[in-house]
Amino acid sequence: MLELWRPITGSGLALLMTVAAPAFAEDVDFALEVRPLLAARCFPCHGPDEKHREADLRLDLRESATAHRGEYRVIDPDRPEGSELLYRVRAGGIERMPPESSGPPLTDREVALLERWISEGAEYSPHWSFRPIAPPPLPDVNDKAWPRSPLDHFALARLESSGLTPAEEADRATLLRRVTLDLTGLPPTAAERDRFLSDTSPRAYEKLVDRLLDSPAFGERWAAVWLDLARYADTKGYEKDLGRSIWRYRDWVIEAFNRDLPYDRFLIEQVAGDLLDSPDLDQRIATAFHRNTMTNDEGGTDDEEFRIAAVKDRVDTTGQVLMGLTVGCAKCHSHKYDPITQRAYYELFAFFDQTEDADRFDEAPVISAPTKEQQDTITSLERQIAELDASLERRGEAAQAAVAAWSSEWWREQSRAEGHLAPTKATDWEVTGPYVAEAGASAFRSVFPPEPGYVGTEAVLWTRQPEWPDATAHILDPAPNAAVYLRRRLIVPSDRQLELQLGSDDGLEVWVDGRSVLQRDVARGVAPNQDRVSVDLSAGEHELILAVINRGGDAAFWFAIGDELRGGVPIALARSFALDWDQRTEADRGLTTDLWLARVDPIGRRLNADREALTARLETVRASVPTVPVFRELPPDRHRTTRIHRRGNFLDPGEEVSPKALENLLPWSPEWPKNRLGLARWITDPSNPLTARVLVNRTWARLFGSGIVETEEDFGAQGALPSHPKLLDHLAADVVRSGWSFKSLCRTLVLSSTYRQSSAVTPEKLERDPRNRLLSRGPRVRLPGEMVRDAALSVSGLLNPERFGPSVMPYQPPGVWQAVYNTAEWQTSPGDERHRRALYTYWRRTSPYPALEMFDLPSREICTPRRIRTNTPLQALVTLNDPAFVECAQALARQSVRRATPVRWMFEQALLREPEPGELGSLSGLLQARRAHFANDREAALARTGEPLDEGSDLAEVAALTAVAQVILNLDEFLTKR
Amino acid sequence: MDPRIELLKAQTRRTFLGRTALGLGAAALASLEGRTWAQDAARTDALAPKAPAFAPKAKNVIYLYMAGSPSQLDLFDYKPELQKRDGELCPKEFFEGKRFAFIRGQPNLLGTPFRFAQHGQSGAWITEHLPRFAKVIDKVALIRSMHTDQFNHAPAQLFLLTGTPVFGGATLGSWVTYGLGSEASDLPGFVVLVTGGKKPSAGKSIWGSGFLPTVYQGVQCRTNGDPVLFLSDPPGTDRIGRRQMLDALAALNRRTLERDGDPETETRIQQYELAYRMQVSVPDVMDISKEPQEVLDLYGARPGHRSVSDGADDPRAVTQGNDAAFANSCLLARRLVERGTRFVQIFDWGWDHHGVAPGEDIPNNLPLKCQQIDRAMSGLLIDLERRGLLDETLVVWGGEFGRTPMRQNAGAKFIGRDHHADAYTMWLAGGGIEGGQVIGATDEFGYSITEDPISVRDLQATMLHLLGLDAWKLTYPYQGLNQRLIGPEGEGTILEKLIRA
Fold first, then answer.
1. Phi/psi of residue B397, each to 5°?
2. Alpha helices in A76-149 (DSSP H)
3. Helix A204-214 to helix A172-184 angle, to the nearest 10 degrees?
4. Is the CB of B245 less than 8 angstroms away from the CB of A918?
5. What angle separates helix A400-414 from helix A372-398, to the nearest 10 degrees?
6. Alpha carbon A331 to chain centroid, angstroms
7. Facing residues of A637 across strands?
8. Separation between Cα atoms, residue A698 and residue A706, nearest integer Å
């Protein structure tokens, strides 16, 4: 078990091939039979990887394998028995191939296969998944009545050739539950069951399926699948793992599934939406797909190193998700098994190397992405403001004479000397610190020696900084929980109001002449104009002191002097008042008119007041608009040069490369631009052999429990072979023909007879088709984590079906979050926000929500093409003891007491069928035993029932029913899709 | 016919008839179908004990992980020359063309502020702040010549423990439980304990199973609240009540098994029974108050102790030398290993002494951290030995890299060192390790290795080797590659020197 060589290459491969073989024609199929054997046993030394190639022999190329090598040929199609290959695989001792160090010799069966293949001419064909998709002809079947669709012909042909018969159709309630879970991720309600069971029309099931496909829950169910692939999370990852606003992307995915955005568009918009002609907001949000990569805010990290890590992740994810290829290996060395050289990897990398993002703390580029409601409000406010602007404009034009008179008057009154309108000057900055706070104290609240109000005697040594211009950010010595002080003198020529413009990392306090004028106890990165403060200053010198208080990480500040007002007029403008109206510039006249409307004219003041109120509202709405990080291409003059990274090390650059797709899979069309958009077109071209197969396979796996190709993430030479290659190709061709409609793909699958089979296992089938690879019965798998949660919430009536919006925090035990340099806390969402569907749960990469993580949800640090279903006792502890699940049982029990037969009612709510007498007996027995217990222990009963009960409820009864409800919500049947 | 298939058939028939007590099911079935075995249900019996590849020297591992990376130059790698030249400008060859996390420009040399003395048969130099450890040094092999490729915390931690600096790999403890299973039937096979108030930089991924099934991931046992998340019955539920519930649940699940015939249902029944047993066995093992006072004293353990660092925004700022959290965890580690847990890893945070904050000051804070671990780790070695467990338990101590001989932020109020990947110290003991030796040496400043360089790959390969696992052959197929801890290139050498003959 430890060493996978043996199972793969020994009996393992043989068994795999018995699964695969019967579906093929009599001739040996190179791609499906011979190549996997060569790939596993020979390619490591005689394959595409030039570094490990021995004897200058490539068995992956017919030309090399059949070349004349002096006396002999390794593969000799003309004289098969003379082939050196056959001699060596039969030989012993040092002549044996593969050598002893590479594992056991080939089995007789494997040797026989090679013999047959060579005697048939040793024809090569491309790896099965690299062959073009050609719709295969329908196979003949004996049972003509069973198939409902072409899909069923392929499945049945395979079953019949194995001597098995399909299972009978599942009963209607079971089928209803199965298809509802599969398409919406939620179990059907009792009302839905009644509706379906009472519909006796022959098309009842089709109607049901169409209803489910139209349900808004459909998008949520399939978004949850996609988000694993997109490695979607609400945090940035790595050490600090700070929050990230990217939920608009999650909502975009939900809507894309709901509106059945064709899959090719779905991919193009995510890979290159920003490069489409005038992309709309949705298309730009879609590019957040590849902004789900992690950002490293750890102190002392090299942004370029982690930008490159993100780009590599994009290449790997693109290969995996879209094409089922594990290109990642080739970042260090050429792929050992698949035709992906290291050079090809960096040619793919080059497509993604030209985006603006660069592992920056602020995640730039980021766009604001208003929701539809927000956009409507913004548009309406903007229109009203524009109307007011027009009114002000008209008013100003009509009053030019009055404005001119007013401004000239102002000049006469206010400006006795030109010098009064000179700008304020400032001396050089002086700096001291950092001053670190005492253990446990806040640096912001500490009073250090440079601060006005300090009463100690410690001297302060200031350092002059003559090179620090205004309106530029300056880096300060960082220390966590510490303050750096800055001071300078302001020389003010005349009495005036001065605006100070400031930015800081992190907090800030400002004193003028010893008086505190601004306090900002915040954690933030520095940016211009984060704060503005206006101060009235008399003519003369004034002392300005800043304290920049760092919480952690970098420290910096930004400063500029803004408007200087004298008598309410900016000094720069006031100088123009000396001129005649006609001699002033157009701009000055406009500014003067605006000032007059705002300050002097009663009508203008009213219009301005209205405008201000609307602007304030607009600002409020804008501030609540979520942001989302997106792709933006660098302008051509800033394009990066992409080089191969030797051994994957970006500090060791090699040869320069330019963008190039894996053109041995599909040639490049000259119509496509050589950028991400072109790559997206290459991926989604109907002739791309992988994209449609991968989509079909993934969808199949979610519905049937495992893929036709079981290694969903690997369609390459090392991946598993398809159990039903023709079925896969039929569906892949079909999905392309349908215009890439995902909903029709789902519809085709769930309407088939294959899908509708009962999942009950007979002893014969357990023995002959233990893992249902032959599709001899319906799917029966444990529910994925999201469905475990959503089903409990739904059945208990607690589910809050609200869609979209920021992620929520359902109950999580205290102390789970405990990250380095990050003091964020989990705060349980209020009210029924905590009862939202699982996919809205806040996902922190370094500490995922435990109840879901235990049910195999990945951390989403990287793309996870396939979850491996596990089974641990920790899962039982979640569904039995997690307060979030206990709450569901309590809610279910509370509702049941109003029913005539509470136990039966709860059972039917959860399982959509009547309990058998034996089942009812066990549950009633539990009810009685528990009722007797709770009747004597009121305190326990109160604790068991949770929230206060309705008046008149029998406490012991409800407590006992809660125990029964918990059992029902933990039944194998409830936690299984069957 | 393959005897495994015979066995399987017998078992599945019994499973089908509902007579077997042991769940089998898809994983075992799949294992016979070759590679695909790994791809479906990994399960509780995935942790059943498995035979190692060859005779092991060690059965279990206790890994004392010093997250943030302690300064080897102030604990074990004594450099009088560096002390002599303390404060001088650093020679150019040390920093030109090098990348550091924080140091920019030409830094100053920093000698240790601590006294050192030689101890034990090997004459190992040890800081004055580890007096008890100095007394047990003959049980230990001290490696002064470790080096790594990474100089930021998260990537370096991932590289050391998962074999790759990027996320997605499986951690050492997962590989070991994947390879060997666990002897503990009612306890997790791989337990993680976190002390020091924070998780390590790389987060939970550092004890994650990556591409291996999640059944192999580390289970964090906590000393506050439920020792394992959701272990306690909900309020108002007593043990009898829980038993009655599980009996009803099993009765209905058995009915499902008879009707649908899926072995997975049997597995589910067993899953709930094991959870029920864990509810007793985990609190039992976590309850160190059952230990005699003499044993508690040996470790410096204090039952019920609650660390002030828990919940502190910056736990380093409130470090207390007599904090018993690490000691309690060491004792707990012994109790777990004694009961069959395969791999226990304690992540102790707070060793990142840069010197830019009060909790990062080498002269003041490092002695407190030493005090927290000195008695505890020494007591652990003594206690394991006298119980006859040391021979079969590999104890490992160390961080993800070392620290520079140069001072970071000269002139600042606190004294500290930057990250250093080129040379650092770790120690190993027990489980087949030849104690009483010092391996490797560094130059007069402790900057570069001059003798016996040992890479992360060497260490990974050797740890697996001691457990009877072949690092080159312990693989798992994922993404088209037979993944392994030591990476695709298969570098790494078994360190024979370390191993007791």
1. -130, 135
2. 84-90, 108-119
3. 20
4. no
5. 80
6. 23
7. none
8. 8
> What DSSP element (H or E) covers A373?
helix A372-398
Cβ–Cβ gap A967/B167 under 8 Å? no
The CA distance from A488 to A511, in Å, is 11
Cα gap A470→A562, rounded to integer Å? 11
The closest CB to that of B481, out of A12, A480, A718, belongs to A718
Instruction: List pLDDT tens digits, range A769-806.
Output: 988 999 999 999 999 999 999 999 999 999 999 999 99
For A468, other C-beta atoms within 10 Å of its C-beta total: 16
Tokens 């109840």 identify what position?
A851
| Single-letter amino acid code for the residue at B260 | D
Query: Which position has the token pair 């499986």?
Result: B170
Helix intervals (H) in B339-443: 362-386
Q: Which amino acid is at A264?
A: D
Please give the biggest Cα pair distance in chain B: 81
A916-924: long-range pairs with CB below 8 Å, 24+: A916/B255, A918/B251, A918/B255, A919/B251, A919/B252, A919/B255, A922/B247, A922/B248, A922/B251, A922/B252, A923/A964, A923/A967, A923/A968, A923/B248, A923/B252
A329 pLDDT exceeds 50?
yes
**pLDDT score of A477:** 86
DSSP SS3 for A403: helix
Kind and range of the H or E element at A282?
A: helix A281-286
Which residues of chain B does A847 touch, with a Cβ-Cβ cutoff of 8 Å?
A: 199, 203-204
Total residues belonging to chain B: 501
Instruction: Summarize pLDDT for A683-732 with one digit per residue, the tens.
Output: 999 999 999 999 999 999 999 999 999 989 889 877 888 999 999 999 99
- The amino acid at residue A896 is S
Q: Tokens 């302001």 correspond to what residue? A: A490
CA A187 and chain centroid, separation: 25
B233 Cβ neighbours under 8 A, 6+ residues apart: A880, A881, B239, B241, B242, B279
Tally Cβ neighbours within 10 Å of residue A418.
9
**DSSP reduced 3-state for B169:** coil
Shortest distance between the Cα of B437 and any Cα of chain A, in A, equals 33
Task: Output the six-digit token pair for B363.
Answer: 């002269």
Strands A482-492, A425-426: pairing is antiparallel
Distance CA B447, CA A168 (A): 73
ipTM over 0.90: no
Q: How many angstroms separate the CA atoms of A795 and A906, rounded?
A: 9
The shortest C-alpha distance from A782 to chain B (Å) reads: 9
- Cβ proximity of A484 and A550 under 8 Å: yes
Dihedral sign (CA A96, A102, A105, A107): negative
